[in-house]
Amino acid sequence: MNEIEEVKIENLIYEVRGKQVMLDSDVAVLYGYDTKRVNEIVKRNIDRFPEDFCFQITKNEMNKVILLRSQNATLENGKGKHRKYNPYVFTEHGVMMLSGMLKSSIAIEVSKKIIVAFVAMRKFINEDKEYLKKIVEVVK
Question: How far is the C-alpha of 95 from the C-alpha of 76, rounded, in Å?
Fold first, then answer.
């Protein structure tokens, strides 16, 4: 729980394919699981994780996330740097689905914090769009 308090979860949310997502390794650390275990759960229950809940990103997408990640204060767990497979990413809905499958009190508490972070990011993005619209109107 200490790592959650030390890092802003919002800094662990990235945009990939027009969706706000979190890396499997970050979700795993927050939930107190190994990334491998989280991915096993997803693979064993793949019917619960449609593309708008969870998907595997490409190497190119991962490179962009690594670039963003280096610009933010993120979890320094050392994982994900030399991966054999491309990581999975979870949308807000995927995080909720995963938390329901992890039977721990930590998962429940972390899920609440992650959902709040997704909502905050969505609000921030929407406010940013409104601000940009106002700037465009002024420039015209």
Answer: 20
